[in-house]
């Protein structure tokens, strides 16, 4: 069936109308007295986000707003503006999840229940000391909920970990600080951190509060090259030989993390060369490089929107090379890569400006699983730059060892996370009852990170169990959806 383009246009118009409704609902917050925009509404937002804010406005001053809705806004990028609005204007009493039973058995989306007050008319400091309670039930609601238990939970002031439920209490001031990057609020992973995170995550936060730092606060994270025309800029070795392009205009490039079996990227594993030339045509007269550019213009590559604005359309912009590479898409490998040879890097990978060994540790896989986005299908996990910046690493003040000291680890093949951690998800014994047997070289690296955090032997084992359980849950959920 061919999609009707009018459908997309109607939906776009409807979204634009909803955005105008929200601006009208909250004058002085999204717009100034002259109607000029002062706070942006993320246009990628799903429709339900607008209904959250609009229905809040419909409450009377003593009203309570209770929604059962998608949980996406807790984690995805477009949820940031809603989080920011809540932290400025709305008292949220409870955010409730149930790990035992879905609210809607026939619907694929995951939902949470939120309980909120009527929004304040103006932003201010009144909400700074508010507490937001994230509650996870591990039994069906009908088995565990009563009026008394809900009242007690709504008044709780500290966290609780029990067999049948979990409560995490966070002050608004903490949530604001955690989501603030640079000079603005960028959002945070409320669902990953407070609803889905295993108990060991909170132990790590507590023990590491003095030596864990946010990656984005100490390093630059940037995506690799976006060519705008891969079929022109990326060539096989056979294609470069066919054209006879001079060597100085070609440079190896890593396009996919699948190309490198080891952490250390080696030229022989790369499948493509990138065409790279920043010279004017008159400077390359008589070269095969110029013939190739002219051929590209015959194909009208230079007329593409992404290239036509460039003064030299065939020039790829590339600034500093960073040696640590983090993939955008993840399956079950704990793959972080080392680009010692300054190969070009495609935008499927992110470049990180520091070489902290925490980034290569199993601890980072834990943050990856909690802060990443599981909406790609087939069990794949996505981490964007904004997600990576929120990862926590051990400050170099407490651990200052070079990854190149682990020669064997960085040169061997990267195994699946289950082999790396020494746990078998397909065994009859549940992951949380198995004894981890991590590969020796991985254990040596991880122990340096765990030592800096002061983790006990059992807590270290819990990190391995938690990581493998999170990855296995993600892969298994995708498999079960395919069988439906």
Structure notes:
- The chain has 484 residues and is α+β, with helices and mostly antiparallel strands.
- The chain has three domains: 5-196, no CATH class; 226-308, no CATH class; 321-483, no CATH class.
- Helix content is 36%, strand content 16%.
- The protein has 19 helices and 20 strands.
- A six-stranded mixed β-sheet has the order 1-3-2-4-6-5. The chain has a four-stranded antiparallel β-sheet with strand order 10-18-14-16.
- Strand 7 and strand 8 (184-185) form a beta hairpin.
- Helix 1 runs parallel beside helix 2 (47-57) and helix 14 packs across helix 19.
- The protein is globular and about 85 Å long.
- It starts with a helix and ends with a helix.
- The relative contact order is 0.09.
The number of helical elements comes to 19
Total domain modules:
3
Count of DSSP strands? 20
Rg calc: 25 Å
Overall spatial form: globular
Measured distance between first and last alpha carbons? 22 Å
């Amino acid at each position: 069936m061919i999609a009707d383009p009018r459908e997309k246009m109607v939906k776009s118009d409807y979204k634009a109308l909803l955005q105008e409704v929200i601006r009208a609902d909250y004058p002085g917050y999204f717009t100034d007295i002259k109607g000029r925009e002062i706070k942006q509404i993320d246009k990628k937002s799903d429709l339900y986000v607008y209904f959250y804010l609009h229905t809040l406005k419909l409450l009377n001053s003593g009203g309570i707003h209770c929604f059962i809705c998608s949980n996406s806004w807790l984690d995805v990028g477009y949820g940031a503006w809603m989080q920011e609005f809540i932290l400025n204007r709305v008292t949220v009493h409870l955010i409730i999840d149930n790990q035992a039973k879905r609210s809607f058995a026939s619907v694929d989306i995951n939902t949470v229940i939120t309980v909120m007050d009527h929004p304040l008319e103006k932003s201010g400091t009144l909400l700074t000391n508010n507490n937001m309670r994230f509650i996870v039930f591990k039994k069906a609601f009908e088995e565990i909920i009563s009026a008394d238990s809900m009242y007690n939970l709504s008044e709780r002031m500290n966290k609780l970990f029990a067999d049948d439920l979990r409560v995490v209490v966070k002050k608004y001031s903490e949530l604001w600080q955690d989501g603030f990057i640079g000079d603005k609020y960028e959002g945070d992973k409320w669902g990953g951190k407070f609803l889905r995170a295993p108990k060991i995550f909170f132990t790590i936060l507590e023990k590491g509060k003095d030596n864990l730092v946010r990656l984005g606060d100490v390093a630059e994270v940037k995506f690799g090259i976006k060519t705008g025309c891969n079929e022109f800029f990326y060539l096989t070795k056979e294609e470069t030989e066919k054209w006879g392009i001079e060597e100085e205009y070609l440079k190896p490039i890593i396009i996919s993390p699948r190309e490198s079996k080891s952490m250390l990227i080696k030229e022989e594993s790369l499948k493509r060369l990138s065409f790279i030339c920043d010279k004017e045509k008159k400077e390359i007269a008589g070269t095969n490089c110029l013939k190739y550019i002219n051929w590209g213009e015959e194909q009208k590559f230079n007329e593409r929107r992404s290239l036509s604005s460039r003064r030299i359309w065939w020039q790829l912009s590339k600034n500093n090379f960073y040696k640590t590479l983090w993939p955008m898409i993840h399956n079950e490998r704990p793959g972080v890569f080392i680009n010692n040879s300054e190969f070009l890097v495609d935008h499927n990978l992110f470049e990180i400006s520091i070489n902290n060994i925490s980034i290569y540790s199993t601890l980072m896989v834990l943050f990856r699983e909690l802060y990443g986005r599981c909406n790609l299908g087939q069990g794949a996990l996505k981490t964007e730059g904004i997600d990576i910046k929120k990862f926590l690493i051990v400050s170099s003040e407490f651990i200052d060892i070079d990854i190149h000291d682990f020669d064997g680890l960085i040169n061997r093949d990267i195994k699946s996370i289950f082999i790396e951690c020494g746990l078998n998800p397909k065994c009859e014994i549940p992951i949380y009852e198995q004894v981890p047997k991590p590969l020796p070289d991985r254990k040596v690296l991880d122990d340096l990170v765990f030592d800096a955090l002061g983790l006990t032997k059992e807590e270290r084992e819990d990190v391995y169990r938690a990581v493998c359980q999170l990855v296995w849950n993600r892969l298994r959920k995708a498999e079960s959806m395919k069988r439906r």
